[in-house]
Amino acid sequence: MIWNLIGSIGGKVLDIVDDVVEDKDEANRLKFEIQRQLIENKSSELEASAKIVLAEAQGSWLQRNWRPLLMCTFAGLVVAHWFGLTAPNIPESVQNSLLNIMMVGVGGYVVGCSGLPTVLLSKAGSSA
């Protein structure tokens, strides 16, 4: 979500560079530099996420499995509610919060699993 915002802001900044800088070569150089900085920031964020995942993967059983266990617990609570096995007085805001936690957790898992190989491959390619 934040990268969508940064991407849209970055696009507007690139448009502003075109409007403000009259020399096309200089404008292209500035736009290239802005895009390079955005890519470097995203890369460093992915590397930090990969380090966290690697540290957890090399840790104890609980360190490796706390996220999946937590997501299974929340999924179980959501399914139990759908089958009517929860208290009837749970407000809709709490139900929506559980669903939001599930979406963030699943999204983080997908990004972590897809981002980690990307970072590892880029590091392998740069060291070769």
In short:
This protein is 87% helix and 0% strand. It is mainly alpha-helical.
* Total discrete domains: 2
User: Helical residue percent?
Assistant: over 70%
Q: Which runs of at least 5 residues are low in confidence (pLDDT < 50)?
A: none
Largest sheet: none
Beta strand %: under 5%
Distance between the termini: 34 Å
On the 0-100 scale, what is the average pLDDT? 77
Q: SSE order in H/E notation?
A: HHHH
**What structural class do you assign from the helix and strand content?**
mainly alpha
- Please provide the count of β strands: 0
The coarse overall form would be elongated
In DSSP terms (H or I, runs of 4 or more residues), the helix count works out at 4
Report the radius of gyration as a whole number of Å: 21 Å
Notes on the structure:
With 128 residues, the protein is mainly alpha-helical. The chain is built from four helices and no strands. The chain has two domains: 1-47; 59-128. Helices cover 87% and strands 0% of the residues.
